[in-house]
Amino acid sequence: MSPTPSLNVSLTPHLERFIAALVSSSRYQSASEVVRAGLRLLVKFEADGLPATESGNQNGIAARARGGSKKPVQPADRRDG
To answer: Is the pTM of this model over 0.85?
Structure first.
């Protein structure tokens, strides 16, 4: 098996704390594992035709996280990242 290429990314402090909390909780063993899990969800959202980016549709991930609610995401509802 060939080595997995590495990739450096910039994260907001909120996302850094979120990843650290998930690793600390023992749900994930590393930050890379958390990021891969998130990317798998993003692949699924894109395959389902649900835009997950703010530029595509602010309701993408937020609506799915609320169980498919159509309630628009207000700026106060969002976190930095």
So the answer is: no
